[in-house]
Design a protein that fits this description.
single chain; about 25% strand; alpha+beta; four-stranded antiparallel sheet; elongated; 2 domains; Gyrase A, domain 2
Length: about 160
């Protein structure tokens, strides 16, 4: 079997798949917890949340169709709060990955900070934060599914509702 050329196939995905891929890429950029360089690629630290791990797997499947020369590994330990998404490939792949990794690095938060969707179980903590800040509570429950949360050391410290 011959090696895949180091070129992304932009025609590998249909319109709906491209939309989903772009959505998953944005989510990965926002939720990435850190990026480390490897000799043949990069490892991205991501939240070890079931829904996000499913999204990461979907992203790998779509990205792999566009860039079949890449290797993907999702490393998850049940007791850990983060997982690792390893992106590697043959010689030259790392340089092609570098521009995408720059976006992840630019979005990277410190180890203690995380920005992501508000989890339904965080609603009581959000209400306490809003009340403590003297902000109105009316209608907050109606926007939980679109709210963003800021967490420090896993604790809710802010939100955009």
């Amino acid at each position: 079997m011959s090696a895949s050329p180091l070129a992304c196939r932009l025609d590998a995905l249909g319109p709906e798949e491209r939309r989903r891929h772009a959505e998953l890429t944005r989510t990965l950029e926002v939720r990435a917890l850190g990026v480390e360089e490897l000799p043949d690629g990069f490892v991205v630290a991501i939240p070890a949340e079931a829904e996000f791990l499913r999204d990461a797997a979907d992203w790998m499947a779509l990205e792999g169709r566009c860039c079949p020369f890449l290797r993907f590994e999702l490393v998850f330990e049940a007791a850990a709060s983060r997982a690792q998404l390893r992106l590697t490939g043959p010689q030259g792949a790392k340089e092609l990955l570098r521009s995408e990794i720059r976006a992840l690095s630019a979005s990277r938060r410190s180890d203690a900070w995380e920005i992501g969707p508000l989890r339904p179980e965080e609603l009581p903590a959000l209400l306490v934060l809003l009340e403590g800040s003297g902000l109105p509570l009316a209608g907050v429950e109606d926007h939980v599914d679109t709210a963003l949360a800021a967490r420090q050391d896993g604790r809710l410290v802010g939100s955009a509702v």
